[in-house]
Amino acid sequence: MLSAAAAKLLGAFFKIPLTNILGGVGMSYFSCAYSIFMPVYSLTVTGLTAAVARMTAKAAASGDSSQVQSIRRTALILFSLAGLCGSAVIATLARPFSILSVGNTDAQAAIIMIAPTVFFGCITAVERGYCEGMSNMYPTAISQVIEGAVKVAAGLWLCGYVTAHPDMLQRFFPDISDIRAGAAAAGILGVTLSSVGAWLFFAVMALFSRERRTSSSWSVSTAKELTRTALPTGISAVVTNLTALIDMWTVIGCLRPGTAGISGISAEDIPHFVYGSFSGIALTVFNLVPSVTNMLGKGALTCVTSAYESGDRTALRNSTVQALIVSAVIAVPASVGMGVLSREVLDILYPMQSDEVMICVQPLRLLMPGMVCLCVSYPFFSMLQAVGKPSLPLKIMLMGTALKLAGNLLLIPVMGAEGAALSTSLCYGAILLVSLITYLRATEIKLSLPPFAKVLYSGAVCGGMAYLAASFMRRNGASDIAVLLASAVSGGAAYTAMLYILMGVRTQKKKPAQRQAGFL
């Protein structure tokens, strides 16, 4: 968990300065490459680590060392081939996808640069799963930090170098007409090098490992079981990433050139500028908190599985409520704070991109309800898998994606980037509602509304105090950082105090056997 948090922090250190360098148009090329990369990467890599870890742990528990090595070897062969195919598909589609997405070939270089990441990601995922299955989390933790550090160092340096030396780009990609596209490709290359760094870590570890490796061979049955285990999770992840493709095509396609006057941006570049700003700034900030609460869903899976299989409804309800309450306790103040202080947050994070920030302030506010819904939805997805309903998250995400597409088509022509933000919140709101209903039906438990109402009320108090503090500081001409700090302290203190008043006092009165229910 610590390494995952560090990796997310390093990702922010990479994405925020990169956006300041590239600007809105440059980020549209960067996001274009990611929009084709993520579905392929998700299909081949997501779920792979967990599948290998589960099978490895099962074989290790039985003491069958030869089966452990067979699983590792089979997974490496199978998913190395899958990674090669995925990389080849991305590279082959680079030119037509660039033309279809941005109307020219300027995004082709960025797409080609990110293609090898799928191959190296597959190998790394297998090695992480193998180590985790052997109850060794350190390799995963260290490789994640290495990956993040290389991404920051190599990506930002390469992007800055190409920006300062545009002639270098023409030697390799003479068709690129926009230096911002070349700088985006250089930044993307840092992502690929980070995956190479993680792969090299495992290669060096294997080279100096004293672990005894028995002879093993390819197993068809193992390959089939790996595929059956990893594929449903990968398909669900692909559906999740379809929202990025929908935003790219609809924002660029539904906005008419010149629909907003921005100095230094040509009328033809306005749709790309708006999309790049929305995806590179608003969605980047939006995704910070859900990436943390996603870990809570993984943590709840074991507890819910145990309680469900044993038929202990009290433990099942307590585990469910714990995961949901903790997610809400984290998400509600974060969303309220970023909603109230969206201007200051974006000005501090992106001081060089005033035009992009101007476009993203209101969309970020409209994204905040969706952020709360997404944060609480993640535990539901894990818990549905835990109670034997692994296909339901996929169906729910497909429904949400269809709603997102319809919302974008209806709202973007009228509201621009704000329409894309509003449709995102509506999408995740519907996903949360359907997830709640299906989970309660599957488990036949009942959840009490008051604890969640208390969190929402505490969040409202937090927002009110933050707003009053921000208004006072603004009237007195305080800097953005001073406004942010004063509001965060005031709102955070009010939120903590209200939570204690509404929930903490009750907790103190509970019997020791009941305290395992956490806040309740």
Which SSEs are present, and which pair or pack?
Elements: H1 2-45, H2 48-61, H3 65-102, H4 108-114, H5 116-133, H6 138-164, H7 166-172, H8 179-207, H9 220-254, H10 270-286, H11 288-310, H12 313-340, H13 342-349, H14 354-386, H15 392-415, H16 417-443, H17 450-475, H18 480-508
Describe this structure in words.
With 520 residues, the protein is mainly alpha-helical. Helix content is 83%, strand content 0%. Helix 3 runs antiparallel to helix 5 (116-133) and helix 9 (220-254) packs across helix 10 (270-286). The protein is globular and about 70 Å long. It starts with a helix and ends in a 12-residue tail after the last helix. The model is unreliable at 505-520 (pLDDT under 50).
Structural class: mainly alpha
- Counting DSSP E segments of at least 2 residues, the number of strands comes to 0
* SSE series: HHHHHHHHHHHHHHHHHH
DSSP strand content: under 5%
Q: Mean pLDDT score, rounded?
A: 82
The major sheet is characterized as: none
**Unreliable runs:** 505-520
Compute the separation of the termini in Å: 25 Å
Number of H/I helices: 18
Oligomerization: single chain
Shape, please? globular
Helix fraction bin: over 70%
Q: Radius of gyration from the CA trace?
A: 24 Å
